[in-house]
Design a protein that fits this description.
four-stranded antiparallel beta sheet; mainly beta; 4 strands; about 70 residues
Length: about 70
């Protein structure tokens, strides 16, 4: 039996106009080390730079609410 697990990594978007930079979640299906520093499509559809320095889920006020709701 094959179990497919989906993991998420944290990614930091850039500040966009009045919107502050937020932490998003990126769905990963490969080795996380390969993604470090890469720009990936987040769960909520934005582009953000993946970092392996933070673990998803993140807590705090600068975390994307859409990603928090979808990536748990
Ligand atoms: Zn997001």
């Amino acid at each position: 039996m094959t179990t497919q697990t989906t993991t998420h990594v944290a990614a930091r978007s850039r500040a966009h106009g009045p919107t502050a930079a937020l932490w998003h979640a990126v769905e990963v299906h490969r080795i996380v080390a390969d993604l470090d520093g890469a720009c990936e499509l987040t769960v909520c559809g934005a582009l953000a730079r993946v970092t392996t320095e933070q673990d998803w889920p993140l807590t705090g006020t600068d975390v994307c609410p859409a990603c928090t709701a979808q990536a748990r």
